[in-house]
Amino acid sequence: MTKLLVLGGRFAGLTAAYTAKRLLGDKVDVTLINNTPYAAFRPGMPHVSIGVFKAEDLEVDLATALPAKGIKFVLGTVNAIDAKKNKVEYSAPDGKKENITYDYLVVAFGAKLGVEHLNGWDDYGSSVCEPDFATALHEKLEKFEGGNIAIGSGVFYQGTLKPRGKYPENWASVADSACEGPIFEMSLMIPAYLKKRGIMDKTHITIFSPGEEILTDIAKESRGVVKSLFAQAGFDTVWNFKLKELKKGEIVSEDGKTIKADIAIVLPPYEANDAVKNSTPDLFDDGGFVVTDEHMRSVKYPNVYSCGDSNQITVPKLGFLAVMTSRIAMQDLANRLGVPTKVDTYTPEVVCIADNPLEGFAIAVNDTTFYGGDEKIAQPSATNHIKKELFTKYFMWTNGDMALDKYLASW
Question: Which ranges carry the FAD/NAD(P)-binding domain (predicted)?
């Protein structure tokens, strides 16, 4: 039986594992390695930070969910990929190093949150990118009685996309931030939360970005609407702010600019996974992301696929693109293993919903201008809030097996 090894249990890894088993059945032995025993629904972590959910409400138990679909689960942290010997080294929970071989590999362990680039992070940093971060931020917000809050993104250590994969030039560009959707979402949620607690009038909010302005991956017109919303809310905005240090009461940029911040809510810097430095070098580009073709196959090692944030092709780093790339990769694999399957065309699009659950509305974004297209929708409505709620329930109900996602992309 063909051995498929999947590295990572987030959107990309789960979609790859479930799709491969669905398409190939007994033709493939699927094993998934993840560094936590659960898969967190990360689009719900901002909701955890304001007390709408607890983190454990949004976690899928992989040791139960995966075997139920005929997929083996291994708890471990990937240390290295040897693409020449078809072998992966990982560390088990007891620290022991193990090796596992494969016929085909899916690299879906995502990017790394490079908090070590930010001096003072452990003492003063807050985020919503991981369950423990979101829980800690909620505890901090519950104690907050007014002052200054800064919300923004760290630098994306992406490299220069060289060598570039075999796909159209406009599918991937160098970006200042890996994804500023959570920043926009928090800019909606935090004021609503502070109003609910009766302390919004005691609080000043600043939005910052490492780019020339926020959300440069969507249309200029949509960014203009967002900036108008910020102005109406009385927020300060600071662009070209490349965060370097967090201190008590303020944050500092690489060029010495400061922003007052009793609480700093940050999308940390993104960079390549730690395993990259120990792995076969020519699997990756100069930023540590896997170089592939449009079917997500490595251009150097055709039995290696890369999906989601670990792939050079996915810019910005979005769950929507993670699911799409994984589905395409496993459709391609099915054909290679003798099961005729239609392979979807990769059509990159910025798709997300910035939710405001405390006020019952959300802004849905569908935008292709980053890739040279002309779609530029940014629509606020109560219906979009309901869509976000349904998407959350859908993910949890299916244990992350989003087979219908491509038909529900407007969510």
Answer: 3-311
